[in-house]
């Protein structure tokens, strides 16, 4: 399972809700959850929103603490 999907499920929000929070289309969130890497600005916003590091979202670090 994709890290962004895990984080989203843990927060109990839909792709639509996350997309609205991030200011992107739902399809963008879906693509990220299917394995596309987000653009740098979106990556930073996702990390901040979920309270994790960018490396964690990218799967480069197993520690999810920001």
Query: Secondary-structure element sequence?
Result: HHHHH
Total number of β-strand segments?
A: 0
CATH superfamily: lambda repressor-like DNA-binding domains
The outline comes out as globular
Radius of gyration: 11 Å
Helix content: 55-70%
Q: Mean pLDDT across all residues, rounded? A: 92
Strand content: under 5%
Question: What is the number of independent domains?
Answer: 1
Question: What would a concise description of this structure say?
Answer:
This protein has one domain: 434 Repressor (Amino-terminal Domain), CATH 1.10.260.40. It has 5 helices and no strands.
Structure report:
With 66 residues, the protein is mostly helical. It is 61% helix and 0% strand. It has five helices and no strands. Helix 2 crosses helix 3. The longest helix is centred in the C-terminal third of the chain and has 11 residues.
């Amino acid at each position: 399972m994709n890290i962004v999907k895990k984080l989203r499920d843990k927060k109990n929000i839909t792709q639509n809700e996350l997309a609205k929070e991030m200011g992107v289309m739902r399809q963008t969130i879906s693509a990220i959850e299917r394995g596309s890497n987000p653009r740098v600005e979106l990556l930073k916003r996702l990390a901040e929103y979920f309270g994790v590091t960018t490396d964690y979202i990218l799967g480069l670090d197993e520690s999810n603490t920001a």
